Amino acid sequence: QSLPQQKLRTWLSVLECVEVFAEMGTARVWGEMGRWTIIVLIQLAKAILRLLLLLWYKAGIQTSPPIVPLNREQHQPLHPSDMEGNSSGKDQTYVGKRSSRVVRSLQSTPSLQSRHWGSPQQREESQSRRAEEMNQPPTPLGLQETIAESIYITRPLLHLLSLGVWGQRSWKPWLLSAILDISSLSLLSDLKDLNKRERAEMRRRTILLLYYLLRSPFYDRYSEGRILLLLRLLADYVPGVGFVTRPLMDYLPAWQKIYFYNWG
């Protein structure tokens, strides 16, 4: 990736990390008007950055977050003793004569912090496989797929616009957003040969359709009572589950009021 493209992804990741804090902090300081102002500004900035990546840099299907969080356990470098000698790792392992089991020799055992429970060959293969997956180029998008991704990117702005026109209690913003999400997924469903990150992103977007059960006005009129009843039954009749469901029942109303938790 070019340096400008990396910077765009970095700024997108920063926005996604601070959006909830910005919304809650602005609401505390400047009230409801300031809250909706910062929501519009953040969504507008995210849409512009994503459209630049899509149309100018041909970034393809964009993941959320744009920069995949680092798994430090998986990306620990090999122990220096593993790097010595030949690359096959023969000096660091011992093969049992009768069992043919490959075990690490005591001389090449790394420190506890960087220890893993596989042979050096397995470690090298897994690291090279992960590096290959991360470096796979994005799948080229045709006109239909580009339109679908553009719909997905601009959906938050259209939803905010519809909220301003019809109000938060209207069904029209909810229906418009659902139609745009489903249309985008339908248009992207024809894509084949997606890489691993893109397939995971498509699964994530499909699962996020369940959020429409928790979004107003559907939640206020239909879901709220049924979800709270289910959580209460689980807390009362399933041993041990109450430690999770009771705090969740208290947290749901606050979670449901945060725009970026619900719609971001």
TrEMBL record:
Biased composition annotated in UniProt, kind: Basic and acidic residues: 122-133
Principal subcellular localization: membrane
Domain of life: Eukaryota
Keyword Phosphoprotein attributed: no
Region (Disordered): 68-140
GO cellular component terms, A-Z: peroxisomal membrane
Keywords: Peroxisome, Peroxisome biogenesis
Localization (cell): Peroxisome membrane
Biased composition (Polar residues): 105-116
An individual GO BP term: peroxisome organization
InterPro entries tied to this protein: Pex16
Entry keyword annotation includes Plastid: no
Family per similarity comment: Belongs to the peroxin-16 family.
PANTHER family hit by this protein: PEROXISOMAL MEMBRANE PROTEIN PEX16 (PTHR13299)
Identification of the protein by name: Peroxisomal membrane protein PEX16
